[in-house]
């Protein structure tokens, strides 16, 4: 019998504010950070998890992770693995900790780190990458692993089971397909607000050459600048002369309703919650010329009816609405779907409280027929989300070609099993038996960037004196 004996947390911060990486209309000086946890057992087995923050306050999340992890100490891992839905309920049901949520804010993202670490432990114990552990489960096991509380008015366990059973026979075919092709990705790192026009043009061209055909630009600080940068990006992505050698035309079905240009290139825009509802509508209408597929996070992430109003107003302009990276929990997604407020579901792998809650959102999105394009970037998020998109495609929704998974080429070198992109601009399938959820960090990176006593931060503090 293997038991969980304890945990270790690390407040790891990377000084990305120095380069302008990650700058958008709301987040102007991000130090990409990881509130990182290792769940220890009385065997060699260790489970790794983290949640992402952008700097100050990361220590508060680490403190919360300790409180949530404590709930697992002394538990038999096989008993936890046998019912991961029950394990999730255990993590979220502390009668005192619930008060500082419930299921939102610091305590919830901390729960995300811990639930992900438990899933990592499970996958490693079975010597499978996380996605493979889950797609190999029976429909009954997947439903049992899902956080189902509070969503049965949108999807019942019986409906979920029927949906999963319908996909069961063709799972092997989809797995083979995605192993061969990779999972479609899009690029955000060309369009940060902190970059010069020249840098935006150069990075966009490089992204086209690398095989990408979906691109995202940050907007919302200055309308004239948004239009100017949007036109620069469109001029690069719409020019057939920039396409890589051997480029094959995209499947028109995959581009339907995406405002694609003449080369099949798609532009998305992201405001990171900067506007009120009427301002969002007016601003995005004024950007119609650059033909965005969707506006991401136009307003407050909790404003379900506001998103619905924006979507209705922009529909005649051919522009959709996407959100989710700051949606607290599955209940917010449930309402966004019920209200017809979004065209794209953007789950976050560690703002939702881990894999069990993500499964709930994947099932609801599939039922409502809305594609899931997970949020990534930051640090560690790309490593996580490829697993979630593979689960969605192989076991849940069965569709991939209309979806795109965010990719940002930052900080992958700090992970033992970094994600990677193939020559067609698609994620490779993680395939190392012992990599679990792919989130284990190099000990050297932790030693260097742990805040405030890691070697980098000690050096930075000495320089300031
Ligand atoms: Mg975003």
Automatic annotation (TrEMBL):
SUPFAM superfamilies: Enolase C-terminal domain-like, Enolase N-terminal domain-like
Keyword Protein biosynthesis: no
Enzyme class, broadest EC rank: lyase
Signal peptide boundaries: none
PROSITE patterns tied to this protein: MR_MLE_2 (PS00909)
Catalytic activity: L-fuconate = 2-dehydro-3-deoxy-L-fuconate + H2O
Alphabetic keyword roster: Lyase, Magnesium, Metal-binding
GO MF term (any one): L-fuconate dehydratase activity
GO biological process terms, semicolon-separated: amino acid catabolic process; carbohydrate catabolic process
Domain of life: Eukaryota
UniProt feature, compositional bias: Basic and acidic residues: 245-256
Listed cofactors: Mg(2+)
Region (Disordered): 238-257
InterPro entries, A to Z: Enolase-like_C_sf, Enolase-like_N, Enolase_C-like, L-fuconate_dehydratase, Mandel_Rmase/mucon_lact_enz_CS, Mandelate_racemase_C, Mandelate_racemase_N_dom, RHMD-like
E.C. number: 4.2.1.68
All copies of domain Mandelate racemase/muconate lactonizing enzyme C-terminal, residue ranges: 197-317
Full protein name: L-fuconate dehydratase
Species name: Exidia glandulosa HHB12029
């Amino acid at each position: 019998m293997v038991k969980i004996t304890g945990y270790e947390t690390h407040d790891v911060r990377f000084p990305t504010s120095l380069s302008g990486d990650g700058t958008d209309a709301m987040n102007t000086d991000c130090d990409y950070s990881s509130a990182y946890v290792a769940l220890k057992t009385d065997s060699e087995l260790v489970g790794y998890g983290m949640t992402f923050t952008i700097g100050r306050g990361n220590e508060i999340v680490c403190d919360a992770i300790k409180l949530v992890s404590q709930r697992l100490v002394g538990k038999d891992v096989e008993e936890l693995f046998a019912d991961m839905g029950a394990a999730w309920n255990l993590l979220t049901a502390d009668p005192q900790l619930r008060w500082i949520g419930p299921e939102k804010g610091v305590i919830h993202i901390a729960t995300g780190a811990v639930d992900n670490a438990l899933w990592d432990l499970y996958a490693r114990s079975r010597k499978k990458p996380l996605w493979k552990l889950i797609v190999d489960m029976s429909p009954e096991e997947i439903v049992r692993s899902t956080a189902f509380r509070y969503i049965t008015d949108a999807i019942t366990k019986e409906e979920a089971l029927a949906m999963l059973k319908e996909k069961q026979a063709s799972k092997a075919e989809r797995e083979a397909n995605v192993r061969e092709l990779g999972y479609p990705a899009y690029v955000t790192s060309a369009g940060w607000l902190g970059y010069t026009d020249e840098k935006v043009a150069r990075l966009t061209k490089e992204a086209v050459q690398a095989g990408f055909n979906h691109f995202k630009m940050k907007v919302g600080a200055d309308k004239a600048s948004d239009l100017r940068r949007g036109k620069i990006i469109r001029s690069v992505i719409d020019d057939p002369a920039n396409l890589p050698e051997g480029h094959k035309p995209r499947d028109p079905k995959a581009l339907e309703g995406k405002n694609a240009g003449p080369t099949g290139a798609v532009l998305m825009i992201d405001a990171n919650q900067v506007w009120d509802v009427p301002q969002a509508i007016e601003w995005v209408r004024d950007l119609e010329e650059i033909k965005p597929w969707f506006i991401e996070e136009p307003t407050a992430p909790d404003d379900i009816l506001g998103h619905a109003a924006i979507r209705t107003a922009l529909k005649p302009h051919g522009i959709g609405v996407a959100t989710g990276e700051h949606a607290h929990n599955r209940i917010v997604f449930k309402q966004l779907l019920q209200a017809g407020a979004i065209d794209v579901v953007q789950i976050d792998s560690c703002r939702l409280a881990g894999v069990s809650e993500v499964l709930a959102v994947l099932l609801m999105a599939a039922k409502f027929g809305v594609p899931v394009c997970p949020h990534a970037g930051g640090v560690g998020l790309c490593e996580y989300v490829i697993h979630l998109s593979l689960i969605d495609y192989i076991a849940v929704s069965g569709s991939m070609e209309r979806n795109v998974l965010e990719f940002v080429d930052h900080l992958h070198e700090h992970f033992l099993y970094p994600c990677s992109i193939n020559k067609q601009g698609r994620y490779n399938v993680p395939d190392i038996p012992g990599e679990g959820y792919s989130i284990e960090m190099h000990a050297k990176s932790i030693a260097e960037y742990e805040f405030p006593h890691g070697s980098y931060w000690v050096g930075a503090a000495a320089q300031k004196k």
